Amino acid sequence: MEQIRQEAREFMINTYYELGKTEEEALHRIEEVDQEIVDKGFYEQTFEELEYGAKVAWRNSNRCIGRLFWDQLHVIDKRHLKTEEAIFQALVEHIDFATNGGRIRSTISVFPQLKQGEKVRVWNHQLIRYAGYVTEQGVIGDSDSIEFTNKCIELGWEPKYGHFDILPLVIQINDNEPRWFEIPEDVLIEVPIHHPEYDWFSDLNLQWYAVPIISDMSLDVGGITYPAAPFNGWYMGTEIGARNFADEYRYNMLPMIAEYMGLNVKRQSTLWKDRALLELNTAVLHSFKEAGVSIVDHHTAAQQFKKFEEKEATENRDVTGKWTWLIPPVSPATTHIFHKPYSNEIVKPNYFYQGKPFKEG
Amino acid sequence: MEQIRQEAREFMINTYYELGKTEEEALHRIEEVDQEIVDKGFYEQTFEELEYGAKVAWRNSNRCIGRLFWDQLHVIDKRHLKTEEAIFQALVEHIDFATNGGRIRSTISVFPQLKQGEKVRVWNHQLIRYAGYVTEQGVIGDSDSIEFTNKCIELGWEPKYGHFDILPLVIQINDNEPRWFEIPEDVLIEVPIHHPEYDWFSDLNLQWYAVPIISDMSLDVGGITYPAAPFNGWYMGTEIGARNFADEYRYNMLPMIAEYMGLNVKRQSTLWKDRALLELNTAVLHSFKEAGVSIVDHHTAAQQFKKFEEKEATENRDVTGKWTWLIPPVSPATTHIFHKPYSNEIVKPNYFYQGKPFKEG
Ligand code: HEM
Ligand code: HEM
């Protein structure tokens, strides 16, 4: 309890200061919150506090290159929801609102805070994600999802054994049996991947969903943990083009693209992997633009991050960052990030990994 | 003195064990060395100790991806040299031996150890390196060399204001005035950079020297510091193609290459930087091969590093490494290195940065 009081106090001081409120207001609020914690063991944040906390948590996300826009996060307050159905509806609304016909809005939906004996979890890693199946012919779909896909099947979801099957939303309240729901198709945008010059690229039948909505991290603000608080921005192209489609343990498309390109894959020094990777990333950026879905290339993202660093400097705030995540996985040395160190100090409010809600096997 | 004794002891135990000698031999040698240190304040290593120490120092070099070949280092013992001329001659011999007509040999030359009042330093960062000049028209040559180039000019070296002027060797013994010497042209190999398909690439008039010979780090073995111990391997292509020629603060060639390629440099999302970078790296690898000069691409280097990790595991030795340096600056996520963590623990023997022998201004 001492820790909640301490973190609440610090959060209120910083937040009220940044919001330009008076010291009196801050002190008054601290007293109020302190009393609430002493009385009940927890406290409730105002919407303003929650909103600012979620934004600052983004600003403090060391692994995120997209932080220039931290102040433009849409915060949707769903802390009052108590049932799986209501939460499911809210998640669908989140998808719809964030997708916005392709003009993606950075958005977070915040569900009830963690309390003694009360816990809401969304089991999905991202709200929209493709299933992965281990079959005798090898993995089908996204191998990153294999374990969760098995869980869904155990819960009664029907596997489809396609490469791009959207997984259901799985919601758990307290220790109840988790419940799963299909996402209605009409809120989903998926982007078929074409290349601006190579027609054959379409034959690869690649597609990816429009909006990455991380749903398994907790939001930690002022001593309060929100274990269900899915948030999204828009994609940086390399996430899809240099990792999801390219990693050997994911869709592993580089060998096939190289083959279509007619590259000599026997000799590494032809740089066939780099060539295939470049065309794949070109195709991803091109396709999202063509489909009218927000996306940012890694050069522009790095420039925006530079602006973020400059803005933070003018506000006299330190920028913390995790270099190994901030550098893009394509041509990293062409960005300024590569050429400077970042301190990976963890500052709160922030988003944190949490234990998986389900166990292996 | 306690520290030298301790480090000597540890080094002897490990080295004699790895060399398959008996415990008796090790203990005998430790006693001998210990006595020498007590008597004189320092000790001399046998050639075998020095050789093994230099090799293990390479094996322990956390930033080096080339460590599979640590056991094949050629160690040249020049600890007896006392004059600048003799050291200069030895450096020229090093260049010649290591270059080997293009079939580069990993080589280190070891000059006198650091003692009270005795210190040999090679001022150059690498034995072969291009000068850099600040002029009214901007920087000419390699901006990485500007400060050292100024020093050379102060010492009487004649600047040539070309893009690829080989700097002189600058050698300092103790507190004497440093002396400079031109490297005879007949020991130098330089590689003109062509592209296998783009003829215009030759019009860029790029070239690079064949052998990177780091000469400003110290070798630290068994409590002894060798402040002059230049070592070389061969290049990994990206060092030249993704850093020396590409970095904005170095030769900054990407905009011009993109222009020759006819790319739209107004929009980052065309990935023009990545395209130019890829062709530049292709050209570097191609040109070195064509010229018969050893070079390794980053994919092959990563595979070799993987083999190194496997070999070390069979020897029950931990591999330490610095991830931020080990990942190549082109398509890093296509190598296994990107996908695992490395411990950056510093183990001795090792190569260390030392303070610059010259001061700014
Ligand atoms: C607006 C567009 C955004 C872009 C382009 C962007 C970009 C990125 C990228 C490229 C990563 C690395 C992902 C990876 O390598 O797996 C990342 C990580 C992250 N971002 Fe952002 N981001 C955006 C919005 C947001 C928002 C709105 C939040 C939270 C409110 C956020 C919080 C985070 C966090 C917590 C991580 C680390 C995720 C993890 O560890 O798996 N980002 N971001
Ligand atoms: C045989 C071929 C070799 C290859 C391909 C190779 C490759 C590399 C590469 C790519 C780097 C990073 C350079 C940079 O980013 O600036 C590096 C760093 C390093 N290598 Fe190797 N290397 C080789 C041989 C050697 C040898 C023979 C030694 C010592 C005996 C050595 C010791 C080091 C050290 C100490 C560093 C760090 C240098 C620094 O911090 O500036 N390497 N190596």
From TrEMBL, chains A, B:
Cofactor section: heme
E.C. number(s) listed in UniProt: 1.14.14.47
Record domain Nitric oxide synthase (NOS): where: 63-70
CDD domains: NOS_oxygenase (cd00575)
Pfam family membership, one: NO_synthase
Keyword entries, A-Z: Heme, Iron, Metal-binding, Oxidoreductase
InterPro entries recorded: Nitric_oxide_synthase_Oase-su, NOS, NOS_dom_1, NOS_dom_2, NOS_dom_3, NOS_N, NOS_N_sf
GO terms, molecular function: oxidoreductase activity
Source superkingdom: Bacteria
Chemical reaction(s) catalysed: 3 reduced [flavodoxin] + 2 L-arginine + 4 O2 = 3 oxidized [flavodoxin] + 2 L-citrulline + 2 nitric oxide + 4 H2O + 5 H(+)
PROSITE patterns, A to Z: NOS
Gene3D superfamilies recorded: Nitric Oxide Synthase, Chain A, domain 1, Nitric Oxide Synthase, Chain A, domain 3, Nitric Oxide Synthase,Heme Domain,Chain A domain 2
Sequence similarity: Belongs to the NOS family. Bacterial NOS oxygenase subfamily.
Job of this protein: Catalyzes the production of nitric oxide.
Note: This protein is similar to the oxygenase domain of eukaryotic nitric oxide synthases but lacks the reductase domain which, in eukaryotes, is responsible for transfer of electrons to the ferric heme during nitric oxide synthesis.
Record text on subunit structure and interactions: Homodimer.
Record's protein name: Nitric oxide synthase oxygenase
Protein species of origin: Alkalibacillus filiformis
